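Entry type: protein chain
Record version: 2
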Amino acid sequence: MGSCAQLLGALKRTLGLGRRQLNVGQRQVVLVTGCDSGLGHSLAVYCYKSLEMTVICCCHNLQSQGARLLQQMSAETETKQQQRLHTWQLDLLHPASIEKVQLQLDELLHNTDYELMALVNNAGVMCFGEFEWQLPSQIEQQINCNLLGTMRLTRQLLPLIRQHCGRIINVTSHCGFQALPALAPYAASKAAIRTWNDALRIEMRQYGVEVVNFVPGSFVLDSNIAARQQQHAQQMLDGFNEEQLAHYGNYFHRFNEYLSILTGFKQPNQLRDDDLLDKFKDALTNKQPHSLYIHETWRYRIYRWLFKITPAPLTDWLTVQFCAMPNYESSKSNSFK
């Protein structure tokens, strides 16, 4: 009997039956990580201003421009008794920081009639460079933050999420479907999050908790996820031995010159992409959200379709064309200066 009910429920979801928007307001709490800049900052502001929810903005650095803007926004519009915008410090690499956030959230929910509606796992780090170039510390930071840190935070908050029948929205990447050269550790972390998300979705549905995979497209130019790229590149170069310097030479120089546009911390900017925000709203507030939301340009969509149907050699060629970055063949005639 139970299996029949589960099958019926799965069929209803597949056909989109029973989908409707939930009413949200200041009693509903959403916690968003990675709010210093980029997508996380914009989603937090959207939930606060447009959806009028109570928002917990988790920032890596409370002195960052994004964190200060959020704090200023709260100070200008709210009193402490009616505060809906909270800015908390969170370092996913430190379990003590994760535990502190959990204690703060528990206290907030315990002393009010708030409902924990969603955890949005958005925080992440990225480092460009071929796998041989990247230092063990750079590889480990991406895995620790993007994958293990996300898992630690989610596990710490799962009892509260389960008790409130909330939901988890994991922000992943197109790299989780098709790995790109020079992003091997980052792609590995996002692919792992994608498969972990799928298992967690099945586990938590029996408790009334929805788990969603949200793929927003590329935001590398609009966030600080790769702001330290040139510092990372210098560390890689310092780690090269003589053979690697002679072999990679001008290729390494041209590669990182091409990526220089990523360097430097950018001002937090609010997204003006209504289609993306509509998809996020549906993931956040629909009673029966889709398991996967993908926001992408036509170029991304065409390439993603081609990646699915082509054999590996052709997929590899398409991937190189998609990235359109300097390569070894075009650079090996010159030596690094």
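Comment: DSSP finds eleven helices and seven strands in the chain.
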